[in-house]
Amino acid sequence: MKRRTRYTSLLLALICLYGTPVSVAQTYRAQVKKDSLLALIAPTGEVVTPFMYQRIEAFGNGLAPARKRGRWGYLDTTGRIIIPFYYEAALPPSEQLAAVKLGGQWGFLHMDGTPAIKPAFEEVGSFHQGLAPAKQEGQWGYIDTTGEWQIAPHYAYAYPFAEGKALVNNGSAWGYLNLKGEWVIAPTLKQGYTYLNGWAEVQYADGTWQYLNGDGKPLSTPKLERTAPFLGGIAVVRQGTAFHLLTPDGKLSPALPYEYCGWVVNGRMRFRQYGKWGYALPDGNVVTKPQFDNVLDFAEGLAAVQLRGKWGFVNTEGTPAIPLQYDNARNFAGGLAPAQQEGKWGFVNAQGKWVIPASYTDATVFQQVQ
Fold first, then answer.
1. Which of 138, 152, 214, 329 has the most neighbouring CB atoms within 10 Å?
2. 34 in any annotated domain
3. What is the mean pLDDT of residues 288-304?
4. For the whole prediction, is pTM greater than 0.85?
């Protein structure tokens, strides 16, 4: 099931990369580590939980699943334990319901920890558009918020709904169901991704890729060897060995003269040429010439770049914004970026000043709490 939904990449692109500068500090949280234990931290530097968690997942509906001594519960943004550490596994809440595992079976809780759907499923996914994928007796279907089957469990695998459609495997191929459980795209695909911005990326039996719109009609362009989501109205695709820019109306740019191209994120695309990395505009014109050993995508107007073992940041015009001085660095979110110096992590602002001193063994990008 590798990369079917691109959840990790999309969280990065749509939460971290498209984040806005923080205005209320309490709406952002990051994870920091001391030795082998995690805590939550605010942009002010306040550590809002003790260092006692083995793992903390992303926030959803204001709560984050966390694991302590092998059991899972839920924390709010202040660090309060809202749902006790009682469960074998837990997922971030969605649509005001949290999936938890108990006694080897999955069910759902309300946000106050009271039972919503009793544990009766072998596996589940999150609720989206009122339905959640669930597995029972080896088959997947979709349940509603009362736990009743709305789409009977007849499938080998099922993913959450997005834009009214869900990616489902019938045991031999992939297709898409609507909210009524009807095939809107027949199960003839080798693999696919969930819908985003009106399009789904799908792979045919011959190994080539294409985009399907909401009606299941393919984009009017030749089949491709690689696709990417439409972000900002542009997707970076590969045809043969060459990279191109593609728009939703099917217009394919001439081949780009690069060895590798990333997604177009916040109006800039990272690319590699002759073994070095730089940035280009959505039309392919170079903004920052290829000169770095490694780069990250832009977030909040800045991008982390590495040269000769040191990291710094450049702005969207390609001008150095923060000198190459860190041992490692990550994306900006909420006005701060994790940075590492002398083996310790802290957070710097857009001027490169330490706002949260480097005193942790690891640190994540800030997440805006939903």
1. 329
2. yes
3. 97
4. yes
**pLDDT tens sequence across 29-70:** 999 999 999 999 999 999 999 999 999 999 999 999 999 999
CA distance 314 to 277: 13
121 class by beta-carbon count within 10 Å (0-12 exposed, 13-18 middle, 19+ buried) = buried
Taking phi first (over 0 means left), then psi (-120 to 50 degrees means alpha), and beta for anything else, what does residue 287 get?
alpha
Task: Give the Å distances, CA to CA, from 214 to 40, 202, 211, 221.
Answer: 40, 13, 10, 17
CA distances 365 to 32, 46, 66, 77, 109, Å, are: 10, 15, 17, 15, 28
Q: What is the CATH number of the domain that holds 231?
A: 2.40.10
The count of other CB atoms within 10 Å of the CB of residue 231 is 21
Containing structural domain, residue 252 = 196-266
- The three-point CA angle 10-296-230 to 5° equals 35
CA separation for the pair 292, 273 (Å, rounded)? 10
Query: Which residues have C-beta within 8 Å of that of residue 257, sequence separation ≥ 6?
Result: 273
Examine the domain organization and report whether 235 and 306 are in the same domain: no
Specify whether 314 is located in the same domain as 363: yes
| Distance linking the first and last C-alpha atoms of the chain | 27
Read off the pLDDT of residues 186-212 as tens digits, 9 standing for 90 and up: 999 999 999 999 999 999 999 999 999
Percent of the chain with pLDDT over 70: 93
